[in-house]
Fold this sequence. Notes:
The structure is a homodimer.
Chain A: E1 16-17, H1 24-36, H2 50-61, E2 72-76, H3 80-100, H4 105-110, E3 121-127, H5 144-162, E4 166-170, H6 175-181, E5 189-197, E6 202-203, H7 207-210, E7 223-225
Antiparallel strand pairs in A: 2-3, 3-5, 4-5
Helix pairs in contact in A: 2-5
Amino acid sequence: MPDVSSTLPESDALEFSDCGAFDAASREAVYRVIGERRDMRHFRPDPVDPEVLQRLLEAAHHAPSVGYMQPWRFLRIVDPALRASLRAHVSAEQERTAEACGEKAAEVHRLKLEGIREAGELLVVALTDGRERYVLGRRTLPEMDLCSAACGIQNLWLAARAEGLGMGWVSLFDPDWLAQTLHMPEGAYPMAILCLGHVEAFYDRPMLEQTGWDQRRTLSDLVFQDRWDQGADRAEPGSGAAPGSAAYAGKDRS
Amino acid sequence: MPDVSSTLPESDALEFSDCGAFDAASREAVYRVIGERRDMRHFRPDPVDPEVLQRLLEAAHHAPSVGYMQPWRFLRIVDPALRASLRAHVSAEQERTAEACGEKAAEVHRLKLEGIREAGELLVVALTDGRERYVLGRRTLPEMDLCSAACGIQNLWLAARAEGLGMGWVSLFDPDWLAQTLHMPEGAYPMAILCLGHVEAFYDRPMLEQTGWDQRRTLSDLVFQDRWDQGADRAEPGSGAAPGSAAYAGKDRS
């Protein structure tokens, strides 16, 4: 254990509540919803109760956000023509993705990756414009806005599962096209199309596991101590591979 | 409602479980943990039970991930000297952030933004290297890897709250420095320092709200229909402001 002999900081100015740990049944419910949440692509077309939708959006809005910026915006897609347009766009992107997947092209072509046509509710989540004003926690990691909104989507997802509703996060779209289609201002950024709705039943395991696309990794292979990969098979400890630039490179490939 | 007359897709190949909605008490527990989770910066130094930590990491590992890539890696920081080094780095970054915040510099300087010294457990979450091999769901939005790992962190955060443990996500660091310090391979990317541990009590409201930094927005201001901002005060519907490029611009400012 590290040296923790330092005194606790002053916290007179803050209000505390004394709620502590949840009871066993409540704790179990939290783990259960985490374990039974699924990325759904099969839906029944029944509409979503507006009161339930409101609760789900409130859950999303109670996510953590860097510097409390609350960057998330939610667009309900209710126009059938607009829904059809999004469906066609995503379908075309799935084909482009299949082509980009080389030897796995046929497999990607066959996968059902969205439920835009069937889901009772269709939402687009976007980052708002004007985010450059928020510097706290983002001076060196500006992408924390995206992470905040992802936490919001995960809240929504878990709450939906508890309500018995399925959800799927679709990222098969061109963000420029979607931003223009939904008349977003410059600087706003659509990051998710969410299919939300009733389902016949939830998958027992992640769909991409059931279809043989991939397996869940063993957790112990993903946990290191003090330095990368120490004790793992892939590299000798202390092999001293030179670290490269860690600048977030996600966009470099697009 | 959109036209939902289309038949449901074939799903014979998939296994379903028939779990449906949670009972009222379990649903309530899910909403409660979402509402009572806080970004904590005040900790007691007691150690975290290793079995609890294992459950929390399992919860993180059960997050959704784009193309089932499971990009997350977790580094436990147990060396006291390394912990002290991270603390000093974050402290210096807080000063640089304060300077970058102009008129709010003094306020940023005063905020307690991390509990690295006190928290019972210190974790770094990073994206693994070799992510360019994963194209499904990332051809147009490569940053979905970051979103997946953020969902994992949110799972961990909620599970910790149910266990009575506080957590804080610290993003005040230079990712290049942290990657090198932890001997990460080229292409890996550290996205979070997580302070995790016992707390005296949880904040009643977000700390940045209690200190007057900002307020929670009204949800209805964040929800639009079919197009950005329709019906909101900020712009006339149909004002037709030309949308700009929606390329994710987070990195442009760094």
